[in-house]
Fold this sequence. Notes:
By secondary structure, this protein is an alpha+beta fold. The protein has helices spanning 5-19, 24-32, 35-49, 64-84, 89-99, 104-119, 122-133, 285-315, 334-369, 376-404, 416-423, 433-451, 467-472, 478-499, 503-509, 511-534, 543-561, 563-568, 574-591, 595-600, 606-609, 620-629, 642-658, and strands spanning 139-142, 158-162, 167-171, 179-180, 191-200, 203-213, 226-230, 246-250, 253-256, 265-267, 273-275.
Amino acid sequence: MAVDHAAAEVDHLAAERAAARFDVEAMKIAWAGSRHAVDVADRMARLVASDPVFRKDNRTMLSRKDLFKDTLRKAAHAWKRIVELRLTEEEASLLRQYVDQPGYVDLHWGMFVPAIKGQGTEEQQKKWLPLAYKFQIIGCYAQTELGHGSNVQGLETTATFDPMTDEFVIHSPTLTSSKWWPGGLGKASTHAVVYARLITEGKDYGIHGFIVQLRSLEDHSPLPGVTLGDIGGKFGSGAYNSMDNGVLRFDHVRIPRDQMLMRLSQVTREGKYVQSDVPKQLLYGTMVYVRQSIVADASKALSRAVCIAVRYSAIRKQFGSQDGGPETQVLNYRTQQSRLFPLLASAYAFRFVGDWLNWLYTDVTQKLEVKDYSTLQEAHACTAGLKAVTTSATADAIEECRKLCGGHGYLNSSGLPELFAVYVPACTYEGDNVVLLLQVARILMKTVSQLTSGKQPVGTMAYMGKVQHLMQSKCAVKTEAFEARALRMAVNCAQNIGQASNQEEGFYERSPDLLEAAVAHIQLIIVTKFIEKVHQDIPGHGVKEQLQNLCNVYALYTLHKHLGDFLATGSLTPKQGALANEQLGKLYAQVRPNAVALVDAFNYTDHYLGSVLGRYDGNVYPALYEEAWKDPLNETVVPEGYHEYLRPLLKQQLKLSRL
Ligand SMILES: CCCCCCCCCCCCCCCCCCCCCC(=O)SCCNC(=O)CCNC(=O)[C@H](O)C(C)(C)COP(=O)(O)OP(=O)(O)OC[C@H]1O[C@@H](n2cnc3c(N)ncnc32)[C@H](O)[C@@H]1OP(=O)(O)O
Ligand SMILES: Cc1cc2nc3c(=O)[nH]c(=O)nc-3n(C[C@H](O)[C@H](O)[C@H](O)COP(=O)(O)OP(=O)(O)OC[C@H]3O[C@@H](n4cnc5c(N)ncnc54)[C@H](O)[C@@H]3O)c2cc1C
């Protein structure tokens, strides 16, 4: 008798859900942050999923042109719904999240508007923001050039003040000064915040921001002196190809003086350069803002991949059938668990550290408003470091989830290839991860060097103040081992650099070790913030226990993976390392019955997941089968090209065989 495997798989997920030992609804609240956050997210996710314009299952099959047009259509429709339904900012940005297609709106709202808010004077904000808020202009963030991205101070575009006309002349003096990469620039934007070297009275004052109109508001054609276009196709099908990353050149384009963003410094009518009393690093404020939002996005991307891999691992069975009994769910294999559960724990870890970082960012912003710049360095180190560590881990984890889903994970319909292709540039944009970690390392070295002068480190560096204790002790407590490892790695680097004849040379020579020291410091922050979270009052049956488990998994897995660091710095003994690994195995066994419910708590719709393997109902096989037939290649039974290329070949073989 034929067994209906599909029906059996569906029952399987129901059984998994029934076996969970905690209240999933309460976990949804812990994940989202509040009941309100769950409800709004739920409403927006359903709004998007039920609207045919937001369909995305065909995206990887569209040509670049069709994909771009589809992005424009979705963005316009989303805006229409936002206006019609009078959505709040919170609702609108969730709606954008669930539309799940990178597009010019991200740069408009995510960078153009924040750049004007952060670097524009009140007057400039009054003039430009209302236009941007109503989409009467579309803006992008034009910083990176063909020749320089990481080294912002190396940018070549010039903005030369002409006192005769009270204008700046924006110019691209070399090929490498062409703006290259800005999202939304290629085809959509009418305006840009352009970063250029300010030259006045014959002196180069370095990089400053300018609002420049690029296209006509009448017919969208480039303004005189402006050459611009798209930079071409990118990694993967669908994926980031919905975005028009662009190239832009200026040939002596003139803009009024008041289009220089003048909150941080000004040029007077006479051409005098005046520096305000605010730190010049505030020029980088937009990047700091986006880096903190990228950390929150890491937990979203990672949780999606993990949700797909966990559900599918509960459905998928291989081996183990004896006497006609059931086969083993691959989720029951210890190896599957040891690869998958640390990623599940990381998704929760990144979620909570992302919330904390958002708090830190808000706090710093409030302090800046009253000219308190004391936490600027902390904000830079935390946003840069957490951006680097969480995006690298998430990119690796999405690829691991693909492998955890076996062959089917490689199909576009699994959702994983596109998720990976969209996600990986996060390791590069908004600061290459290595470059950002070296920034953290510089701050660590500065902090270590100040320890001898008695200056007490603060914020996330405060543990370094316990230097006497941490340099000597054997650590019994988990966080203390993380603190000792991070501090000792930093101190080792500082000592090695100190022996070099020149500090810069020493830093350069030791940079691979410095990267590792920076990672150790950031991992300490993630572990600490997770522990702080589970110490809070968390309502709901079994929720706190589950989070405690996941926190332990994250910490012990990180420890296991970097055991070399812990041993080399003497922060743990080999015996402690072995015990930690033993413990990890036990924790996986506790996660196992709750795994499906723990990913259900992310509360993702099937539309947002975009994966036949991750379907909520577990009906994987019929969906895979159906999906295959939708491929354009299956529109005809006999493929196009048969008559030109297959038939002649086959005929020829026929003749040969007759010879
Ligand atoms: C209601 C409607 C709603 C509608 C709904 C719609 C809603 C939609 C919403 C959508 C939202 C989604 C979001 C967008 C999506 C993302 C997409 C991707 C976009 C990607 C964009 C990009 O990709 S955009 C380009 C990013 N390009 C970089 O990222 C360059 C890195 N490169 C550097 O960033 C500098 O080049 C680098 C290395 C620091 C050296 O800079 P340098 O040479 O000037 O300086 P030094 O290293 O010498 O440092 C000198 C001193 O500055 C200190 N310092 C340095 N940085 C600092 C900082 N930031 N803050 C404070 N302090 C800082 C340092 O600690 C030193 O401090 P000290 O002097 O005390 O030691
Ligand atoms: C999808 C995408 C979207 C983007 N959107 C925008 C946008 O909207 N606006 C915008 O202005 N830009 C944008 N960018 C550009 C992005 O910000 C830069 O690509 C990024 O900052 C990295 O700079 P780079 O390309 O110059 O890399 P490079 O610095 O050339 O990196 C090449 C290699 O050199 C290494 N390296 C560089 N410097 C050092 C160092 N000091 N020490 C050790 N190693 C080093 C890096 O680690 C890397 O391995 C986007 C990029 C991408 C991929």
